[in-house]
Design a protein that fits this description.
The protein has helices spanning 2-23, 74-79, 97-112, 114-117, 131-142, 168-175, 182-187, 219-228, 254-266, 284-287, 294-297, 299-307, 335-342, 359-362, 368-379, 421-439, 446-449, 466-480, and strands at residues 24-31, 39-45, 52-56, 83-88, 124-129, 151-155, 202-207, 233-238, 276-282, 311-317, 347-351, 403-407, 442-444. The protein is α/β, with parallel strands linked by helices. An eight-stranded mixed beta sheet has the order 1-2-4-3-5-6-7-8, sandwiched between helices. Strands 10-9-11-12-13 form a five-stranded parallel beta sheet, sandwiched between helices. A hairpin with a 7-residue loop joins strand 1 (24-31) and strand 2. Mean pLDDT is 93; it is low at 1-21.
């Protein structure tokens, strides 16, 4: 038995080496720490397709299994024009910031080197195995936008940090003394960190008979969180295979796995490197509340289809949020706001004000104008009024980046949740128009243009249905791309 296994492994290593020689143009190592304790081994393909994958080996946070869960993938990925960068991170030994910092540094290097390495900086994914799958999911959910991957590939991942339902030593090695802190256990059980629109698409591979990292309390939990958020996620569960199969040719379903992975990758094309970036900022109407699979059917997603490949539209909507910083749920205190700024958009579509009309929020109406100005100037520090202080004569607005479109709220056809259309009309909209005029911004008057679309609403009379989202997308698209 051992002899057969040795022969299989030898054959696998030899064929991998031949594939590597045929498809890899360059291989080199970059130290991530001065002493080389953490490094990144880079495999660049002969014919770059523009995509890159950062590999995160497993090993229970006590070792690195960087052969079949690391280097062995280089030939298959390079053959498809995908650059591959394996991060040999330092072990946490109770200090989680160590491996997180190593992977984030590797990601920064990949994106900073994109032009030289033939990579689209916004087509960089992460691929993690077991404990490395947990680390990959941490980067996918908790890292800043500029260090977050564009897609995630998770093999039999540790997801939960509750040692009762997952791999005990991964939890203890990663969290250290914080394993006793329920908040830390909750926060780093990454199914709890998934965010609608903001967590990248994911594909998960596991075996039903994995006895080391139970699928039901780990990979399946991540899938459920992604699906409940409406995010793009696929889950493949094989009948047998146990734990740790990685790229191993001995895995019974190896050929099926790589075929399914390739199909999934091909179904997720990246935006063009020179695409015009459009950030949709707003409340639940932008978010797509009440619309099944809103990331696919909400107004920003439909706007993307209308604008075409030359544009890259991202949804930064968060339900229930207000423009008012003293509102019950201020938008500018959200992760989505920080992500929208980090996105560095060319065009911004702002659709806030509906929730500000609620009595508990509109009591702070005197601050609405200043809060709107704050949002505008944080988005565009070069934005200046079109009138000088010394003269009442208006001067022509100078082109600035990003171009900002200020949307009036759609009508509140019902007063659900105490949303008040009279306040919207007589309070919110006049302030929006005043500020827009002062800065020379274009107003998209959704309140007027959507007034006859009451039949395209959900029963609450506040949120558009899928047809209503299509109508909003039409109006916004006409303003952006006449």
């Amino acid at each position: 038995m051992k002899k057969n296994l040795f022969s299989t492994l030898l054959f696998f290593l030899l064929t991998s080496a031949l594939t590597l020689q045929a498809q890899t143009a360059r291989k080199f190592t970059i130290n991530l720490t001065d002493d080389g304790a953490a490094n990144m081994v880079v495999f660049l393909p002969e014919k770059p397709a523009g995509r890159a994958v950062v590999g995160i080996p497993g090993g229970g946070y006590s070792m690195l299994s960087n052969t079949h869960e690391g280097y062995a993938w280089s030939g298959w990925l390079n053959e498809r024009g995908i650059a591959y960068c394996v991060v040999n991170y330092r072990l946490p030994k109770g200090n989680r910031s160590i491996p997180i910092g190593d992977v984030e540094k590797g990601f920064r290097i990949v994106r900073d080197s994109a032009a030289v390495w033939g990579i689209n900086p916004w087509d960089v994914g992460i691929m993690g195995f077991s404990a490395g799958g947990h680390l990959a999911s941490v980067i996918s959910t908790l890292s800043p936008y500029e260090l977050r991957p564009n897609f995630s590939i998770l093999f039999y991942p540790v997801i939960s940090m509750d040692e009762r339902v997952t791999h005990v030593w991964s939890c203890r090695n990663f969290l250290g003394e914080d394993q006793k802190n329920p908040k830390m256990v909750h926060d780093f059980s990454t199914q709890n960190a998934v965010k609608r629109h903001l967590t990248p698409p994911a594909i998960i591979f596991s075996a039903s008979d994995d006895g080391l990292v139970p699928l039901v309390t780990n990979g399946l939990e991540y899938y459920k969180a992604m699906r409940n958020a409406g995010n793009d996620c696929a889950l493949f569960v094989y009948p047998t295979g146990g734990h740790g199969f990685g790229f191993g040719s001995w895995f019974k379903y190896h050929d099926q796995l790589v075929t399914e992975l390739e199909s999934w990758l091909n179904a997720h094309p990246a935006p063009q490197t020179d695409a015009i970036r459009v950030a949709c900022i707003g409340n639940s109407i932008t978010d797509g509340h009440g619309i099944e699979m809103a990331p696919v059917n909400g107004y920003p997603a439909q706007l993307q289809k209308m604008l075409g490949e030359g544009y890259w539209v991202k949804n930064f909507g968060v339900s229930g949020r207000t423009m008012l910083n003293k509102g019950d749920h201020p938008y500018m205190k959200e992760t989505a706001w920080r992500d929208a700024l980090a996105f560095k958009p060319d065009i911004v579509v702002i659709k806030l004000g509906t929730n500000d009309s609620k009595p508990q929020n509109w009591q702070h109406q005197a601050e609405f104008e200043n809060d709107l100005r704050q949002m505008l100037t944080e988005l565009c520090p070069d934005l200046t009024p079109v009138k000088t202080k010394k003269s009442k004569k208006a001067k022509k607005a100078q082109p600035v980046k990003p171009q900002i479109f200020l949307c009036t709220p759609i009508p509140a056809f019902k007063s659900t949740w105490n949303i008040n259309d009279s306040v919207i009309v007589n309070g919110v909209i006049p302030i929006q128009q005043k500020v827009a005029k002062q800065y020379g911004l274009q107003v998209i008057d959704l309140h007027t243009l959507y007034a006859n679309d009451g039949d395209k609403m959900l029963k609450d009379g506040i949120h558009p249905n899928e047809k209503g989202a299509h109508r909003i997308a039409e109006i916004v698209a006409a303003a952006i791309k006449p």
